[in-house]
Amino acid sequence: MPTIAPYAFDEFAMAAGFIKDQPAFAIADGTIRLPTTVGDKAVEAHSGGLLAAVFDEANGRLITGGEDGRVCATGADGEARELASIGRKWVTAVAAGPKDAVAFASGRSAYVLSGGTVKELTHSRTVEGVALAPKGLRLAIARYDGASLFFPATDSPPTGLEWKGAHIGVAFSPDGRFLVTAMQENALHGWRLEDGKHMRMTGYPAKVKSWSWAAKGKFLATSGAPAAILWPFSGKDGPMNKAPLELGTRGDTMVTSVACHPAEDMLAIGYADGMILAARFADGREAVMRGGGDGAVTTMGWDKAGARLAFGAETGEAGVIDLAG
């Protein structure tokens, strides 16, 4: 049976996961919490609130942005190092990319840090989300009425991908062939980048606030429904004209967080009542990882080996589930 090491924080975790083998939680109060067997270390990463966080697994660090206008990287050693500062501006989105590249956003500007220099890319609309392509230095931003693609190493104008509505998050597929945005309405939208072909992913009863790519990019798993919704991306056309896979249905209880296993065709599913299930893609078989809690699960992340899962809930509850018991 899995065992759970429980934690309780004064505010909720923006992101839960692992820095190398160290469990780590990016807390809304601006701290990074690194619990160990001998205590809970609090790293003061930002003064004021922490607004965005992403785990950079390739480089063993947690990238964060905050109300203090700083972008920081926290390593397993518990040191928060400043990567960039833009003054008294809120950093509202961050992303990690290949070769230590980092992207972040504030207002109508997106920034790319690469090779020790920061380049600012301005846009006519507020930048709501940022993503870096899995290969090469290519930036995508989410904005009102679509997304834009930049090549930061050049001065070429951005490529616009248009679709009416507010787009608030953005992600490349692991193979770089597709771009997907989360929308303010209850939907996702996507484009096949080779030809700009549109992909509409609709039918959600709630906004999609959590998504996770399966190993090798076979599926994009999402929250926003009373089941985890997995859109197929393994074929040439992605999810176009294909029905999604649905896992972990529990009546009307909403799925609020998803995290695909790093190697196996398996998904951790977090719910509004605090329960966490594991479900297999092939047959939908489920196993309980956490029986429930005081609030909705809002963030989850696996360790590299896929043996432990860190999670956080909206109430400040958090923990690490060890599958080995």
Task: Supply the key terms.
single chain; 325 residues; mainly beta; Methylamine Dehydrogenase, Chain H; six-stranded antiparallel β-sheet; four-stranded antiparallel β-sheet; 0% helix; 55% strand; WD40 repeat domain-containing protein
Give a written overview of the molecule.
The protein has 325 residues and is mainly beta. The chain has a domain at 208-325: YVTN repeat-like/Quinoprotein amine dehydrogenase (Methylamine Dehydrogenase, Chain H, 7 Propeller). Helices cover 0% and strands 55% of the residues. It is built from no helices and 30 strands. It has strands at 3-8, 13-19, 22-27, 31-36, 39-44, 50-56, 61-66, 70-75, 80-85, 93-96, 102-106, 109-114, 117-122, 129-132, 139-150, 159-172, 178-183, 188-192, 197-201, 211-213, 219-222, 228-232, 245-247, 255-260, 266-271, 276-280, 286-290, 297-302, 308-313, 317-322. The strands form seven sheets. It has a six-stranded antiparallel sheet, with no helix packed on it. It has a four-stranded antiparallel sheet with strand order 1-30-29-28, with no helix packed on it. A four-stranded antiparallel sheet has the order 2-3-4-5, with no helix packed on it. A hairpin with a 3-residue loop joins strand 3 (22-27) and strand 4. It is globular. The N and C termini lie close together (5 Å). This is WD40 repeat domain-containing protein.
